[in-house]
Amino acid sequence: MNLATLIACATCRDALTADQHDDTIIYRHAVTESDHQPRPVNASLLKSVRNACHTCTGAPPVWNYHTSRLQIGTSIDGPIETYNEQWHVCLRCAQFIEADDSDGLTARCAGRMRWHPDSPDYAVLRLLHRGIVLSRNERTLLTTTPWPPARLTAEMLPKIRDRLTGLLRGPANLPTPINNTDQRQALAARLDLIPMYWINHEYTAQVQALTANQPTAWINDELAPSEAGLLVWPEPVGHSSQLAAVSWTPQADGWHFIGYRSVGAGAGVDQDLMQSVRHEIGWLVPIHAEYIARGTGIDGDHPLGPLATTWLFIHQRMTETVAAKPDKSTAKAYARAKRPAPDIRVVQIQPRSAEPARHAEPAAGRTRAKPTHRFWVSGHERNQAYGPGRSLRQKIEIQPFLKGDEDLPIKLSTTVRILGRRTDDDRTPGTSSE
Ligand SMILES: [Zn+2]
Ligand SMILES: [Zn+2]
User: Fold this and answer.
1) Is the CB of residue 166 less than 8 Å from the CB of residue 181?
2) Closest ligand to the CA of 63
3) Which ligand is nearest to the CA of 97?
4) 413 confidence band (pLDDT: 50, 70, 90)
5) For the stretch 281-302, what's the b/e string if a residue is b when 16 or more beta carbons lie within 10 angstroms of its beta carbon?
6) DSSP 186-213
7) 261 alpha carbon – ligand 1 mean position (Å)
């Protein structure tokens, strides 16, 4: 489930607020009702969308404050304006709200609009901001904020993980599908102990180049490098280049996956606020949540496609994993808290001098003529005979793999499918035995 779909009004192209009541979602315009009904559509379908802070109308919003219904009448028998109960607010405005400083909020917002403190508009704004600050009851982290990406390093992993578990244990709401308190606590407890994988730059570049064409891979125990984990790429991957990390934890007959975008300190973010961003949010914001049953096939187009591709390379033993030590201050902090040392694993493409990758793949046939490029060989499911007299069958999944030496150019247009006629070069043992 995509958690980061921005919904906007097709008529006015303003981002909308969403209020979920059981199975129905009510969309509203920002601040007050408009002269037209909202027509909610996925914002990616619209040319330009206005997704600005509801109070200062400036920076993109980061927090959604839930307030009581606010109504303001400017004269005794004049009209009464009714306001939305949700306020999408930028980092700077949220600082004023958190500090209960409604006058500071008004001064900032009126200043941006050049409203004089003696003007009637200013007085209404001050009332409105007081209403927001006094009647707010909870806030939700918006997962649609277009953060600049962060550069994530292996040394940062313990901190990144600990801020994520802090967010899960903290008071801020997350999107409804991942907001259940018990599940948040359970996930945080699990993340405290998981191995953390950092994919190096060269490997990440290969994943990014090869994901789009990745044939179906089967999510199973054999493919997953560990039962649970957090995997981080140094820069985001995937077709929208947003996916910075994925966590997986076992659940019933499969895994619960959460994909995250990273929060960078780049352009458009006030640098003096970064410290509080790191404290309140951290480095990762969830953008995708999904339960995947054991044995489910996913290909490169899937939102978690880059994870499947990364796992396939590890599975194919194209990579080597090196344990990394945390820096001294992290190691000390963990020891002081009587926590086990963080399990950091750096994963990189094997050096060229190593055994060529295809020899490590048991499914790869002996090649007489060397391939001149690298290409995906699709996987498949087959029924394997076992038991007395080989009378029983069990389904096993043969994963796709990348064929050819690493220094060969990649031919992305070619995916060899194990169907019908095939050349000697493309054959994989196991397919012919059926
Ligand atoms: Zn509209
Ligand atoms: Zn603002």
Assistant:
1) no
2) 2
3) 2
4) low
5) bbbbbbbbbbebeeebbbbbeb
6) HHHHHHTTS-EEEE-HHHHHHHHHHGGG
7) 28
Secondary structure (3-state) at 428: coil
- How many A from CA of 334 to the centre of ligand 1? 51
Distance 57 CA to ligand 2 centre (A): 6
Alpha-carbon gap, residue 312 to 333, rounded angstroms:
35
CA distances to 80, 209, 305, 360 from 309, in Å: 57, 10, 6, 17
Question: Are the CB atoms for 66 and 54 separated by under 8 Å?
Answer: no
Q: Which residues contact 148 (CB under 8 A, 6 or more apart)?
A: 264, 265, 266, 267, 268, 269
For the CA of 56, the nearest ligand: 2
If you measure from the C-alpha of residue 225 to the centroid of ligand 1, how many angstroms do you get, rounded to a whole number?
47
Give per-residue pLDDT as tens, 133-188: 999 999 999 999 999 999 999 999 999 999 999 999 999 999 999 999 999 999 99
Encode pLDDT of 252-278 as tens digits. Answer: 899 999 999 999 998 878 899 999 999
Ligand 1 centre and the CA of 121: distance in Å? 23
For the CA of 13, the nearest ligand? 1
What is the pTM assigned to this prediction?
A: 0.88
Query: 49 C-alpha vs ligand 1 centroid, how far in Å?
Result: 11
CA 62 to ligand 2 centroid distance, Å: 9
